[in-house]
Amino acid sequence: FLPQVDSANAGRVLASDAAVFLKKSGLTDLVLGKIWDLADTDGKGILNKQEFFVALRLVACAQNGLDVSLNSLNLPVPPPRFTDTSSPLLLSGTASSDLPWAVKLEDKVKYDSIFDSLNPVNGLLSGDKVKPVLLNSKLPVDILGRVWELSDIDRDGMLDRDEFAVAMFLVYCALEKEPVPMSLPAALVPPSKRKPLSVPGAMPLIPSSTSTKESHQSLPPVGILAAKTPLTQ
Q1: Residue 218 maps to a domain
Q2: Which residues contact 88 (CB under 8 A, 6 or more apart)?
Q3: Domain for residue 87, yes or no?
Q4: Residue 109 shares a structural domain with residue 68
Q5: Has keyword Nucleotidyltransferase (predicted)?
Q6: In angstroms, how far is CA 157 from the centroid of its own chain?
């Protein structure tokens, strides 16, 4: 990756060059800002070769749902994925759907059987039906609230089969003491929920007014979980 951003071959990367390159990871500006802050240890706005590798490693962590922190650097993760924004692939919208889903097939079968056992209506589970399963994990309510928030991708207050698999995946990660990410990594978005991109690199970071309105109608994450159920820590 380094030759792509270090065109002068000076062994260092300027913030402006790195920003353009790191954007291709599909991560949000917020996450990329955090990655830059951790990698640019002396705050000079320039990364040397070692710091650039730290940034790449943190991108890989974020794409695989791990916490963006220096503690994650030693965890085994696949290499980071970048999409060339000038490639015709992205124009046709197939690039994001090429990303393999982080939920493994054998796990999906397991999650599907739990989903079916909860009596979904029209292929959807309400927050009330999902809540006992989440609470059963004995995870803190704020973590479970974030799991719900991340897995209810279309913000309709219900989980379909794929969204439920995302919720279960995040719960099992949290039980393995892996931090739940603040935003859903691209690799965790179910293929059925991936939207084709009409403009290269145009990932809307701010929800439109309509989706904001809908999100208010969906169940508030902590409200679902905190409802008078005493949690034994």
Answers
A1: no
A2: none
A3: no
A4: no
A5: no
A6: 19
